[in-house]
UniProtKB/TrEMBL annotation:
Region called Disordered, residue ranges: 130-150
Name the record gives this protein: Methionine-rich copper-binding protein CopC
Pfam families referenced in this protein's UniProt entry, alphabetically: CopC (PF04234)
Species of origin: Erythrobacter ramosus
UniProt-listed InterPro entries: CopC_dom, Cu-Rt/internalin_Ig-like, Ig_E-set
One function term, GO molecular function aspect: copper ion binding
Length: 150
């Protein structure tokens, strides 16, 4: 091998080594099931009273696109951010429901988000409000209304 050939091989080897050192190591991909760290109401929980807000905590900052709740009668309601904000990535979000959830039965929270690890991720949290399906959780007694007199 000529002196020029050895020098060329060393140059190519050094360039390849420099390229490997300069590029960041591949980040470990987050499993979709690990993205949701906590929620309120909690996954698979049984709650005894109505729900007015939903809190979701993620493993990494995420931009939440939408949050909906499927009700026991299979209808859906959209939840709105508790405090209006510009779209930005956050680790914890809170959403307000248009009306408190009081009907007994099974509910499913569905959320759609984007993050560093996910271009699009749709997640679900199932929970239940205790009681007989179709009934509502008893609230405080209402004051008597106007009565008709003879």
């Amino acid at each position: 091998m000529t002196k020029g050939g050895v020098a060329m091989r060393i140059f190519v080897l050094m360039a390849a080594l420099a390229g490997m050192l300069a590029s960041p190591a591949a980040a470990e991909k987050l499993d979709p099931r690990d993205m949701l760290v906590a929620s309120s109401p909690a996954k698979d929980s049984i709650v005894a009273e109505g729900i007015e807000t939903i809190a979701l905590t993620f493993a990494e900052p995420a931009e939440v696109i939408s949050v909906t709740v499927r009700l026991p009668d299979d209808t859906e309601v959209n939840a709105e951010p508790e405090t209006p904000y510009l779209r930005r990535k956050q680790k914890q979000v809170r959403y307000r429901l248009p009306v408190p959830l009081e009907e007994a039965g099974g509910y499913t929270i569905s959320y759609l988000l984007t993050s560093k690890s996910f271009k699009s991720l749709n997640g679900f949290v199932e929970f239940e409000i205790a009681g007989d399906p179709g009934s509502t959780v008893p609230g405080p007694p209402s004051a008597p209304g106007p009565q008709e007199r003879d």
